Amino acid sequence: MTRPLKLIQIGAGSMGGALLKAWAEGDLLDKEGSTVVDPRPSVETETLCQDSGIALNPSADHAYDVCVLAVKPQQFPSVLPQLSWPSFGETLFVSIAAGTTADEIAMLLKNQADSPRVLRVMPTLPAKVRRGVSLLARNPALSAEDEQIGEAMMRAAGEVHWCADEEELDRLMGVTGCAPAFFLRAVEGLAKAAEEEGTSPEAALAMAKETFLGTAALLDADGRSPSALREAVTSPGGTTAAGLASLEEDGFAQSLPKAVRAAYRRAKELAGA
Ligand SMILES: NC(=O)C1=CN([C@@H]2O[C@H](COP(=O)(O)OP(=O)(O)OC[C@H]3O[C@@H](n4cnc5c(N)ncnc54)[C@H](O)[C@@H]3O)[C@@H](O)[C@H]2O)C=CC1
Ligand SMILES: O=C(O)[C@@H]1CCC=N1
């Protein structure tokens, strides 16, 4: 694999910014030879670029090893055909967008590169602290070196899981890409419960957050499975059992698989958006 990589990243919002931070902190990039394009960069992105030497919205033309596409899927049809770096010939395109297929992306890039090679990746926001989980979709158009480059980039931001194809990635994105929002919704719900019991908003959020973080740390450090740890919390006939029974009455066990399928359906709708 060619190291360090010359990167051009299109879009540095929530997810693009998180990945950029992970990459800028490591030794994967040739930072002086890398560029971020974003018409409305956050202060965080501006500072990151300034501190790392990555160019932000430059007019100069460079050759890039990798182009990361990190705008919203709905923006792909307007943004991709407008990309104006003529040196995309050998560039590997990495899309982090939900839904939009590699074939659709290659079609939108047909004026920028002959036969563009597109790797689809589904990252997670904890990439910002290098605790992401990235799904990567195998694609016959990619070379072994393309796969190595994609894997090295995403490993710099956490764990990676190769999917047999884009279909598998779309099916699993609710378990990874979307799931931080599901977990955070649970933290919000617990904080609201504490507030309803008369706790101040600050203390409510602090106790919900620390309980969540402590549970995650325990799951990480302890050898036991989530089921075994859950049982360790749950005294027979006790308070947790009563709470879990209430959750089950509300269909909790089915709600997450249902959410994952809803995310998959939306990914299919976004394909071709
Ligand atoms: N937010 C998340 O947790 C995850 C997001 N994704 C994917 O990441 C992609 C980006 O999502 P977010 O970061 O959440 O969106 P965002 O709205 O936070 O970021 C999009 C960025 O694109 C920039 N942008 C708009 N027009 C542009 C243009 N013409 N050229 C360059 N940049 C432009 C915006 O200024 C913004 O900074 C989406 O395709 C989404 O499906 C994937 C996994 C997780
Ligand atoms: O909500 C979305 O569509 C993106 C993809 C996964 C997480 N955020």
What name goes with the CATH superfamily of the largest domain? NAD(P)-binding Rossmann-like Domain
Poorly predicted tracts of residues: none
User: What small molecules are bound in this structure?
Assistant: 1,4-dihydronicotinamide adenine dinucleotide, (2S)-3,4-dihydro-2H-pyrrole-2-carboxylic acid
What fold name goes in the CATH topology slot of the largest domain?
A: Rossmann fold
- CATH C-level class of the largest domain is Alpha Beta
Give, in order, the helices and strands.
Answer: EHEHEEHEHEEHEHHHHHH
SS summary, helix count:
11
Number of spatially distinct domains: 2
Cα gyration radius (Å): 21 Å
What attributes characterize this protein structure?
273 residues, alpha/beta, Rossmann fold, ProC C-terminal domain-like fold, 2 domains, 11 helices, 8 strands, binds 1,4-dihydronicotinamide adenine dinucleotide, binds (2S)-3,4-dihydro-2H-pyrrole-2-carboxylic acid, Pyrroline-5-carboxylate reductase, amino-acid biosynthesis, NADP, proline biosynthesis, P5CR-like_CS
